[in-house]
Design goal:
single chain, Thrombin, subunit H, two-stranded antiparallel ribbon
Length: 482
């Protein structure tokens, strides 16, 4: 019985941590999802963890900490999990949404962590395994949720990838094939982005854990940063339409993002006009149980650290290394308390809201062989497309040639675009057209990056002006033109 005690303790710690994080993230759904779907995703995570452990067992070991952390552990685990998350997104129903994809990724991460902790609890013993069981659950949850966001977003970019069926010239000239390749490159970039982010987070965690000593203190900062980033992605995912709506209106997730940002810009212009209200990072949404539980964890961490300083002989009886003891009783409870306390009181879209508070304009000259020359004032230039305001009679799938230029600047950049969505009459939505870029060149990419950087610098000056004047608002004309 004594030989099974470490396994039982590790199993208990893992189970409690799993339950805490499950109920923490299930709060994002107003309507509970079927238990069979949640159970399926969890067991998919168990299968992923078991398969990963098998692959790691047949791979050669190394004495290099960097190799073990970044390749043998992080890369193999995230690569295996990426396959399952990708298949889950591809096999989704027509009602699939970005939020569902993230939550399924979180459940896969929970199942993965449970299988891994069970393996380590059976093969190893000691306090270090308990410490790993506590911290590995949020690690896998955050890394898997972040990867699932990008993989699910990439899947929702399939919703409007079909080329125009009636354009014979496009088919003959190979334009349709280039469009499909462009969509594939966009999705591949999203998949790579999600995998690399999850791998970096996981690799940094494993490297800090294997290095030991004071490097263990870096783990809470890694987990907190991953938590905030995942919460930002969840907040953004709530804005994206589910797959059936995207298919119905003939757009994809990138197009919806362009439309939503245009709507934010127009609302700002209509309501503010002369003044800009500074967005708030801290929200007044203090929930009773969040405050109680978060404060309790913080008090326990402070009490444990106070006892460690005042009565060190008590902790010497435990025969635990100092760094592990401080992490187990002080740093990690305080980390959990901070997360619970501030989780519902941060505006995770603060940076995004700050970026769209003041539109940075550019002119877009539209021309083409069968298009009358016209000009549009665009309020943003995204990597995938632009919103052309106005009721011009562009037709669906019409190809345009766009020439962009910033006010007061001589540099120009040209790119081809295709109309994928139009609204000329519904005044509840922005009136205009979503134009998706095609065949973006290096010159245009440089132009767009300069455009974005200028916007950031202008908003920094706006914030400095707000701080200097000591008010929450600032007149637009008081900010110098960038």
């Amino acid at each position: 019985m004594q030989s099974y005690l470490p396994i039982l303790i590790d199993l208990l710690v893992s189970t409690v941590t799993l339950i805490v994080f499950f109920f923490f993230y299930v709060r994002n759904f107003t309507f509970p999802r079927p238990y069979i779907i949640q159970t399926r995703a969890f067991f998919l995570g168990l299968l992923t963890g078991s398969l990963t452990l098998f692959v790691q067992s047949v791979l050669p070991e190394s004495d290099s900490r960097a190799y073990r952390a970044l390749v043998h552990a992080a890369f193999i685990e995230e690569a295996t999990r990426a396959v399952f998350i990708y298949v889950r997104a591809r096999m989704s129903s027509d009602r699939f949404s970005l939020m569902e994809g993230i939550f399924d990724g979180i459940l896969i991460g929970l199942g993965f962590a449970f299988a891994e902790n069970l393996h380590y609890g059976y093969n190893y013993s000691g306090v270090i395994i308990i410490l790993r069981s506590i911290t590995s659950v949020p690690l896998h949850v955050f890394a898997s949720g972040i990867m699932a966001y990008y993989f699910s977003y990439g899947h929702l970019c399939r919703s409007q990838m079909r080329p125009a069926t009636g354009d014979e010239n496009d088919r003959r000239s190979g334009v349709a094939g280039r469009r499909i390749r462009g969509y594939r490159l966009r999705r591949a970039g999203l998949y790579l982005h999600g995998f690399v982010l999850a791998w970096i987070i996981h690799g940094m965690y494993d490297l800090a854990f294997l290095s030991g000593g004071r490097y263990v203190y870096l783990i809470p900062f890694i987990l907190i940063a991953a938590f905030f980033f995942l919460e930002y992605l969840i907040a953004h995912a709530r804005l994206i339409f589910p797959k059936n709506v995207l298919l119905m209106i003939g757009v994809n997730a990138d197009d919806v993002d362009i439309l939503l940002q245009q709507q934010e810009y127009e609302q700002w212009i209509e309501r503010e006009q002369k003044e800009i209200t500074r967005p708030h990072l801290i929200l007044s949404n203090w929930r009773f149980w969040n405050v109680v539980i978060g404060a309790l964890f913080l008090i326990l961490a402070l009490a444990a650290m106070g006892a460690y300083v005042l009565f060190p002989e008590i902790y010497k009886l435990l025969r635990i290394p100092g760094t592990i003891l401080i992490s187990l009783f002080g740093v990690f409870p305080a980390t959990l308390g901070i997360i619970i306390l501030v989780s519902d009181n941060l505006n995770y879209l603060f940076l995004r809201d700050w970026m769209i508070r003041m539109p940075l304009t550019a002119s877009a000259q539209v021309y083409g062989p069968d298009v009358p020359s016209s000009a549009h004032l665009v309020l943003d230039i995204q990597s995938t497309g632009v919103f052309l305001n106005g009721d011009d009679a562009y037709r669906q799938d019409q190809v345009l040639r766009l020439r962009f230029q910033r006010p007061g600047r001589h540099r120009q950049a040209e790119v081809n675009g295709r109309i994928v969505w139009s609204n000329r009459y519904n005044r509840t939505l922005p009136v205009g057209h979503i134009c998706r870029f095609e065949n973006r060149g290096l010159r245009f990419s440089f132009f767009r990056w300069r455009f974005r950087i200028s916007g950031v610098l202008r908003r920094i000056r706006m914030t400095v002006e707000m701080i200097r004047t000591g008010s929450d608002t600032v007149r637009i004309d008081s900010i110098s033109r960038s």
